[in-house]
Design brief:
Keywords: Copper, Metal-binding, Signal. By secondary structure, the chain is mainly beta. It has one helix spanning 2-20, and strands at residues 32-33, 36-37, 45-46, 52-59, 62-64, 67-70, 75-82, 89-91, 96-98, 102-107, 112-117, 130-135.
């Protein structure tokens, strides 16, 4: 009886750990240009207000796209959608910090490469949830 209980608890632990560490994605990370995915970088479409509309999907433990390119002076609207787990999205250089699904707008007024990362502690792969926004 004790052996079966130990076996059952071990299997439960294995199942729980594998569920937490899942890294499946329905679409490969890619490039979006006006809503079309084709590679590894995103250049967003335009919203009615003139801002570039960039959709970012968060899964365990990555962002898609992981690289975003915009022009200096562009107005940018970032929309975060969580597909797996609970994640945030922060670009410290532009004071953008989404704590859950939603949108934020900013002006890309600083040329260069700026890091974005997950702003909600989401598990063992949290530190791997990074990307970059390149302002040209």
């Amino acid at each position: 009886m004790k052996r079966w209980m130990t076996f059952g608890l071990t299997m439960l632990l294995v199942f729980a750990l594998s569920a937490c560490g899942s890294k499946t994605t329905s679409n490969p990370p890619g490039t979006t240009t006006g809503g079309t995915t084709t590679g590894g970088t995103t250049t967003g479409g335009t919203t009615a207000g003139g801002a570039q509309d960039i959709k970012v999907t968060a899964t365990n433990f990555q962002f898609s796209p992981a690289e975003i390119k915009v022009k200096k002076g562009d107005k940018v609207k970032i929309t975060l959608q969580n597909k797996e787990g609970a994640h945030g999205f922060e670009i410290p250089d532009f004071k953008v910090n989404l704590q859950k699904d939603g949108s934020a707008e900013f002006t890309a007024d600083k040329a260069g490469t700026h890091e974005f990362h997950c702003s909600v502690m989401c598990g063992a792969g949290h530190d791997n949830m990074v990307g970059k926004i390149i302002v040209e």
